Amino acid sequence: MPSQPSQDIETFANPNPHRDYTIRMRIPEFTCLCPKTGQPDFATLHLVYVPDALCLELKSLKLYIWSFRDTGRFHEAVTNEILDHLVRACQPRFMRLTAQFNVRGGIFTDVVVEHRQPDWQPAPPVTLP
Question: Which amino acids are annotated catalytic?
């Protein structure tokens, strides 16, 4: 197999660090295992961030997300763990991770976690006619 899961998250220099802009990613194939039953849990991850000096490199992000496939994690724990790792890797101005887990036991679970640099404020919304 040419690729293997990895906990290494690579970054690259933000090409426009002078400007706030938003990067949105949808990761529809996240899987981990239920720590109680060992059965697979499936989720779509929605990652939104405003980069500072660094951006996330996509192939390493894919391999990082793959690394959770055979690990038992509660929804809340794995969502917070992923956000912590991504923030540590790229130190964004703002980052939000939403994990939308498929139904388990008749219950859908969405977990939303955020990071914000202490002095960062979003630009006011623009209203167009």
Answer: 34, 41
